[in-house]
Structure formats: C-alpha cells, structure tokens
Amino acid sequence: MHIETQRVVIRNYTMDDAKDLYAILGNAEVMKNCEPAYSFEKTSHFLSEFCIGKNAAVAVDHRDSGRMIGYILFHPLVEDVYEIGWFFNRDFWGQGYAYESCRAVIDYAFHRLDAHKIFAETIDGVKSVGLMKKLGMQLEGIQRSHTRDNDGNWVDFYLYGLLRDGWEAG
User: Fold this and answer.
1) Helix, strand or coil for residue 155?
2) What are the Cα distances from residue 6, in Å, to 9, 42, 61, 123?
3) Element (H, E) at 16
4) pLDDT (tens digit, 9 = 90+) per residue, 98-111?
5) What gap in Å lies between CA 119 and CA 132, rounded to an integer?
6) Percent of the chain surpassing pLDDT 90
7) Dihedral of the alpha carbons of 49, 118, 86, 56, in degrees to the nearest 10
8) C-alpha to C-alpha distances, 168 to 43, 107, 117, 119, 159, nearest whole angstrom
9) pLDDT in tens, 11-29
C-alpha cells in the first residue's frame, strides 16, 4: 500500500521502523486503552511477525520530517470486511493526523480494494469513539462491562462500522 495525503505518506512497514514504532507502542499513555506498553523487544517481534509477516498494519510517515508517526491496523477479517485501528505518536495527538490517515485508508479500502465494510472497536468511549464518529462510522453495539482496562477495571467495549454505501453517500 502506498497512499499520499497533504501531510502524510501511508506505506507498508519495514524493519527500519522499529525505533519509531517503539516510540508509539512503548508509550504507556498511547497504549492506555489497549494493553500495557511494549518493550523494544516486543515491538520488534510485533513489527516482524504481525505488521510485516501478516501484512496487517501500515505505517504513517510525517511528510515534512519523514518520521514514522503512526500505526494503522488494517487487515481483512473476512472477505471484503476490514478492521481498522490506530495508534499515533503522542507528540502528534490533537493535530488531525489520525483522522487524515484513517480517512485515506478507508477511502483506499472502498475504492481500490472494493471493501464492503470497515469496522473498529475500542474501550475508549471518548477520543477513539469521537474519531470513529468523525470518520462516519456508526455505532453497531456496546458490550457493557465486557473487558478489563490496563488497571483491571471492567469497561464497556464499543463496536463501530461503516459500509461502502455510507461512505459514498457522505
């Protein structure tokens, strides 16, 4: 995959991305709503086995600096149905990079891969749900008190989805 927007380049991962990916996945605040922060070794293994080996995620490069600033989970769950998720370097939060990048990946999925549906899930009912809504996704369900957060508290699990028809109408 290779997508260019005004401010980012979205591309496949290489092992040269280990340091920048660790700056994302190794940050406890970034990983707060997913799992404990990764060690460098776990990041390298994840990069090799999942991001590259399974081709299940793409890197987001900051166009001006060339620095890899984002991780986007993107892979088919079943035929023509893709899961999307994201983590961005903390230094780039609140600047629209996640929206710009995810919007470009979704557009690519619907127009280049002929996807039928894109879905995302989260326990973060504020920031992540806000981005899902901004991307045009619709709430498909809330599993109440379904899983535990990193502190061991029971939390709700939100599922959002977007159909190609909804994307093209928007």
Assistant:
1) strand
2) 8, 32, 11, 30
3) none
4) 999 999 999 999 99
5) 9
6) 90
7) 10
8) 36, 9, 12, 16, 21
9) 999 999 999 999 999 999 9
Contact 68, 21 (CB under 8 A): yes
Give the residues across from 85 on adjacent strands: 73
Q: At what angle do helices 127-134 and 97-111 cross, to 10 degrees?
A: 50
Q: What is the 3-state secondary structure (H, E, C) of 31-95?
A: CCCCCCCCCHHHHHHHHHHHHHCCCCEEEEEECCCCCEEEEEEEEEEECCEEEEEEEECHHHCCC
Model pTM?
Answer: 0.93
Residue the block writes with tokens 């028809």: 165
Residues 6 or more apart whose CB falls under 8 angstroms from that of 38 comprise 22, 25, 26, 31, 46
Average confidence score pLDDT of the chain = 95
**Measured distance CA(54)–CA(36) in Å, rounded:** 22
Residue 58 near residue 72, CB atoms below 8 Å: yes
